[in-house]
Amino acid sequence: MKGMQVAMEDMARGFRTAEATRKTEDAVTRRFSERTVIFEPDDEGARAVYITSGWAMTYKVLPGGTRVVTDFLLSGDVISKTAAQLAQETIYALTDVSCCEWPDVLSDDAERVSGLSRRLRLEMLKRQARMSERLANIGRRDVLERTGHLLLELAVRSRDFAKPTFDGFICPLRQADIGDAVGLSTVHVNRVLKDMRMRGLVWFRNGLVEFPDRQRLIEMVGFEDDYLLPGTASSYGDGARRPHS
Length: 245
Prior knowledge:
Layout: H1 2-12, H2 18-22, E1 28-32, E2 36-39, E3 47-53, E4 56-61, E5 67-73, E6 78-80, H3 81-86, E7 90-93, E8 97-103, H4 114-140, H5 143-157, E9 168-170, H6 175-182, H7 186-198, E10 203-205, E11 208-210, H8 214-221
Antiparallel strand pairs: 1-8, 2-7, 3-6, 3-8, 4-5, 4-7, 9-11, 10-11
Helix pairs in contact: 5-6, 5-7, 5-8, 6-7
């Protein structure tokens, strides 16, 4: 695991800023309004998408019409439209989103962007790790553990602190979004969040998620951030991102 992390840190070095992406040949800057579709499986155009600001998500629609959220994309994440199309996923803006697009390394034009191909492959590994964790979340954890685990992951990945001493993050998700990600109805999510609030674990209100006792929640749900990989996971070793003092 350590050797893999070192290799990924080396791959990620130099590709962490949106400015580097904007300077790449054939890169195009695009903006999408809150709660609009960025990409649908039937769309054409093999592009890779680098989220420079905002929140997005990917989801599948089952034959019966049920929506299943497969991942959340935050600033700094990259997704291949080719891969999303293969998985029949829709990419959807949760907030206003700015992104850069360039020819997808999984397309026939990959040779022209060999430098970015390493970044996209890294991001695909990170996304695969998150989706594997999401599968385990739904299949093996109870409802409180599923919800708490997802919120802790998003806290680690988010860069949005409401204020310097605030242990939490700005969260644009609705309860329906959370429910579709963890396999619960909106009513059930509401009950779980109320239970977590009563236990002094999580407050979710007015677009803010706050952890009154993050460490206790981490221990209760068994959260470990190793799967998030270098550049995203916490450096504290306990899954917690501390607010600035």
